[in-house]
Amino acid sequence: MLNHYAAVKQQRKQPNIVVKKFIVTISKYKYLYLMLIPGITFFIIFHYVPMYGAIIAFKEYNIMQGILGSPWVGFKYFKQAFESPFFGQILWNTFIISVYKLIWGFPAPIILALLLNEVKNMIFRRTIQTISYLPHFISWVVIGGMFTDLLSPQTGVVNNIIKMFGGQPIYFMASKEWFRTVLVVSSIWKEVGWNSIIYLAALSSIDPQLYEASQIDGANRWQQTWYITLPGIMSTIAILLILRLGNILNAGFEQIFIMYNPSVYEVADIIDTWVYRTGIQGMRYSLATAVGLFKSVVGFILVVTSNWIAKRMGESGIW
């Protein structure tokens, strides 16, 4: 009996102990938690609260009736989107453009970070790093204008060089063969420096004694990179790859919307641009929401799957 009462008393104390530990932790790191408040507030207001509007995808939404007053229609707009003669093409365009950006754009900041890590002259290193990440802060509107001028068939620098070597000018921005290449190159140029910052931070956490030990064993720079540097940042690479795969259906609305034109719709029209024209401009909000919800579900499945694969391979996932 005494043991029973002691056990009950101990169980009653446990919630109090948890609460006390929580209060102690909050008071100890109160300034860090205060700094978290703006970020948490942002996500609550702009990411979690709007999720309530996802029910529009299952309703015949009418502005005058409101979200709750609009009648339920089930999966009508999902079926309508999937049966659209354009949906297969825009889904393929979205996927292939994202894959191109993943294949060429994901390794680019890793390579840049590895190269910068080898530079011993700090002034030169910081200059290159600053120049490489400045394009991140330039609007796609400006970049779209820059690439339009650079690739102009009449006055563009690139076509002038082609003509100097006896070639014919290429209409890059209106060519179905070249437009996806322009998208990938401009995306890499804009983001490579900014994305490399994360890898440079990961590289700084590698123990220098590992390099010293490898030098004693006779390892060259390439062997040090392959057997020490890359494994040292592999967990960072895995996490960023998982997050990138979750956005595989986000091919870059702003970039494409600014740079594309009707002559390249066949290869450049993606889900987001089609939803903008068909759903937003056409005021078919239920259709636009249904497609957006479809993208979110696919992204969630990809994140969970890639996280599971990463853990099976021995890397740390995002949870």
TrEMBL record:
Asked if Cell membrane is a keyword of the record, the answer is yes
Subcellular location(s): the record lists: Cell membrane
Q: How does it sit in the membrane?
A: Multi-pass membrane protein
Q: Which domain of life is it from?
A: Bacteria
List the keywords (alphabetical).
Answer: Cell membrane, Membrane, Transmembrane, Transmembrane helix, Transport
> Major location, coarse class?
membrane
Any Gene Ontology biological process: transmembrane transport
This protein is called: Carbohydrate ABC transporter membrane protein 1, CUT1 family
Q: Which organism is it from?
A: Caldicoprobacter faecalis
